[in-house]
Each structure stands twice: as C-alpha cells, then as structure tokens.
Design a protein that fits this description.
The chain has about 500 residues and is α+β, with helices and mostly antiparallel strands. Helices cover about 50% and strands about 15% of the residues.
C-alpha cells in the first residue's frame, strides 16, 4: 500500500491510497474462495465451485464489489492512521464507480478534516499561582462546626410550633399506590424526617409546611418528581399517595465545644489540641490535592496562550464525548439525571451551557498541548504505545494493540500520550507563586474572562499589525506622488 497526503484549504487533507496489483489479485482470489465455502452451489462440493459459477450465481461483479468495499472500509482508516492524521468526523470518498480488477493496482482518494495545528503566543515556562497548604482559622472553625453537628441531639418543640421548610419532624407514614394497595417499604409509624434534603419530592415537603403536632395531610406524588424516594421506586412506578401525620416538631441541639466535651467525645486533652490536629489534617488534605491543582492551573494558563479559533466540529465532538462519559458515570452511580440536577441546583439549560464551556476548555487545552509538544519536538515511541496497552489491564495487551492497529486507531492514542508527556514537562518546569493562606485561586469563570481579554488583545494586535503593513506599502506611492509634484 502506498499513501500520499495533499494539503487542501484549511484543515482538510486529500489522502490518495494505492493498493498494489499483487495485493488486489490476492484479495480477489481469497474472496472467491470465501464465497465458494460460504454458499451452496448446486452440483459442486463446498468450496469447489469454479469462478464462472460463482459469478453466474452471485453476479458478475459480486466478488470485485465486495473486495472494493472491504478495501474502502478497512484499508482507509489504517492508511490514514499510518500517516499520523488525527481526523475530525468521517472521511469523504471521491465519487467513483471503479472496482478493483485482478492484476491491476487500485487507486482511490478520500478527503478528511484533521485537527488544526495552532500555535501559542509563547513557549516560555508557564507561571501559575497556587494556594497555600496551611490551614486558616476559618477552615479549622468549619471543621469544629462539622464535628459539633455530628454530635447533635434533639428536643421536642412546643405543640403549637409550625413546620418550616428546614424543620426536623417526627412523622408517621402510610403509602398507597394507584390501585390503593399499601407500599410496605414506605410505611412507617415513626420516622425522623428533615425537610429540604431531597429525600422526598418538594410537593411532599410543601404539604408538611405549616402543620403542627397532631395534624395530618394527604399528598399524591408523581414518580417523575426528582427525589431519592421516587428514584428508588424505579421507572415503572405509578403515582404514590401519602397519608402523613406530624407526631412532633423537633429542634436540633448542637453541643458547645469545651475542653470537657472534646475529651469525652473526641479523645483530645483540650480544644487547642483538637484544633491543632484538625489544622494538620487540613494541610495534609490540601497537599494531596496540590498535584491536581498544579496541572489544572497550568492547563488554564497554557490555554490562554492559544492563537486561533477551535473548529466547531471539534467543540461538538468534545461536547458529545463529555456527555457520553457523564451519563455513563451517572448510570454507574445509580442516580437519575433529574436527581443530579436537583442536588446541584441546576436546570437542563444551565447544565447544557456548563457542558459547552467544559468542552471548549478541554478542546482549547488539548490544542495548546499539541502546540507545545510540536514546538518541543516530542515523539511517542512504539514502546510507549505498547506500555499503554499493558497498563490497560487487558488479558492480552499484544493482541489488543494489534486489533487497534488493524482498525486504524493508533494515531489518537499517540496524540493522547503526547499531550500527557507535554503536560508533565510543563508541570515539572512551572514557575510557582504561592498565595497567602486563605487567599483563593481565580475561579473558572475568571479564567474564562481573562482568556477572552487575551483573545481580544491578540486580535487588536493583529489588526494593528495589518494596519501598519498597509501603511508601509502605501509610503512608496506617496513619495512617488510628492516627487512628481516637485518635478512639475
């Protein structure tokens, strides 16, 4: 197989593939044998039907058409992959009615879109700000407060206390389905329930608000309402009707943190020792997350150096991949999409917008890493690729790698390894400024605003450069006119 690549406009490439005559003949011979074994031809034993019989029964072009389709579908991705092209979307074949012919080479062309090779404004070491790993007094206070809340207790409120949106209540429950049958799993004589936590749908909580001790309500819940309760009923559940009575409105009592309480509940000599231990734990936790923060901050800073626009096709492909991964993780966790949105206070529109922003960030960061790797002259060896299949945990990594090569899937893997090597080099050479304890990093949105400003500055600089070029080209003409005027 011979392959040539021609650069077209933009990110398009024309790939011309030539299958040598001997290979074409071999494939045709093999296909005749395959058909002779696959089908029954009257008067001939399995696999013994001669070519004229195969052609007369299956059609004169059945074999060559099958070989042609096989080459186009299986050889094309391998040829593209061997050229190191990471494509976007599907290959477009040039229209042709030509079929392979025994003893002759077969030549055809396809057009593909590839990932653009953008550049960075600078390839200098990346500078980032990183948070301090020291624990602040506010962070320790929050940990102490969390400990207090862990050891809370309850006391009964006065009988005339009304249920509020965030109340704790002791309730009795009776649940029946649409057929009037009791749902034993939801039945309870006494159950401590906290409103507003998403355990039951919002309409259930709304029915309780305003009730007092001894008062009851009946509420019918649609199984499509997002909550942990409705999710546990499954997709086939019908409407559920609850008869609920408020047995007691409760008040949560949070203990006071004293030396005596700390010694009894947490095993420390005093509050000071507890706070010291908490500060140490907070610092250790921060230190464990620092490598991830270093990499994320480096990627955001590198992203800001990218010159050029990300093709819409890449953004759409990245968004689709993120969405697919999200729903796969959601399915593994057993959580519904509605429940996910409710827990995060999002609606479908804001989720979609957030997904688009994530896709744009990832796409820009990948292209920036590609640029860094090219500038650094990075290469990925076959040994590194083989190691990836070993690390995958496959039972037979060698066979898996061969399968990937035969299906033309090595180039995207090579690009991914290249990016991994690039970010490692970038992180290893980071120039770090440590923030003061308690000082927060810029948010993702602040990063995006800075990126937008950087893009605008780059565009204005480019316009200014173009304007200067135009001015320079006009100067000779001006001088010429002045000379003519003087001569007159």
């Amino acid at each position: 197989m011979k392959t040539t690549v021609e650069n077209l406009e933009g990110n398009s490439r024309k790939v011309t593939i030539e299958i040598e005559a001997d290979e074409v003949t071999s494939r045709i011979n093999k296909q005749y044998k395959d058909f002779a074994h696959r089908y029954n031809f009257p008067g001939f034993r399995k696999g013994k039907a001669p070519r004229p019989i195969v052609d007369s029964v299956l059609g004169a072009n059945a074999v060559v058409a099958t070989v042609t389709d096989d080459i186009l579908s299986k050889v094309t991705p391998v040829a593209i992959d061997e050229q190191g092209l990471v494509t976007i979307g599907q290959a477009e074949f040039e229209e042709s009615e030509e079929l392979v012919e025994s003893g002759k080479p077969f030549v055809y062309s396809v057009t593909v879109d590839v990932r653009p090779e953008l550049e960075l404004t600078s390839y200098d070491p990346v500078k980032v700000e990183l948070p301090s790993t020291e624990a602040t007094e506010e962070e320790v206070d929050a940990q102490v407060e969390e400990l207090r809340n862990y050891y809370y207790d309850f006391e009964d409120c006065p009988a005339n206390t009304k249920v509020k949106k965030d109340s704790f209540v002791d309730i009795s429950l009776k649940a029946t389905n649409a057929a009037g049958e009791e749902i034993e799993s939801l039945h309870s004589e006494s159950r401590l329930y906290e409103l507003g936590m998403g355990l039951f749908p919002t309409e259930f909580d709304e029915a309780l608000v305003g009730l007092k001790k001894g008062e009851a309500a009946t509420v019918t819940i649609d199984p499509s309402s997002p909550s942990m309760m409705t999710q546990s009923l499954g997709d086939d559940a019908d409407k559920v009707t609850f008869d609920v009575e408020v047995k007691q409105v409760k008040k949560r009592i949070i203990p006071e943190v004293t030396d005596e309480w700390v010694k009894e509940k947490a095993g420390f000599e005093n509050v000071a020792e507890l706070r010291e231990r908490m500060a140490s734990q907070i610092k250790a936790q921060k230190e464990s997350t620092l490598p991830t923060i270093r990499e994320n901050e480096a990627l955001f800073e590198l992203q800001g150096r990218l010159i050029g626009e990300v093709p819409q096709s890449i953004l759409e492909a990245q968004e689709s991949e993120l969405l697919q991964n999200f729903f796969m993780q959601l399915q593994q966790s057993g959580m519904s999409f509605d429940m996910f949105l409710m827990q995060r206070g999002m609606d479908p529109a804001s989720f979609k917008e957030d997904l688009k922003l994530q896709a744009k960030d990832v796409a820009m960061q990948d292209l920036a890493l590609d640029a860094w790797a090219r500038h650094a002259g990075m290469q990925v060896s076959d040994e590194e690729i083989a190691e990836e299949f070993v690390k995958s945990g496959a039972e037979d990594p060698v066979a898996l790698e061969a399968e990937w090569r035969e299906s033309g899937r090595i180039s995207p893997l090579r690009a991914a390894i290249m990016r991994s090597n690039a970010i490692k080099e970038i992180v290893d050479s980071l120039e770090v400024t440590e923030l003061a304890a308690g000082e927060k990093l810029r948010s993702v949105r602040e990063h995006e605003r800075m990126l937008e400003e950087a893009v605008k500055e780059a565009e204005e600089a480019e316009k200014a450069a173009i304007k200067d070029d135009k001015t320079e080209t006009k100067e000779p003409d001006t001088d010429s006119k002045e000379d003519n005027s003087e001569s007159e």
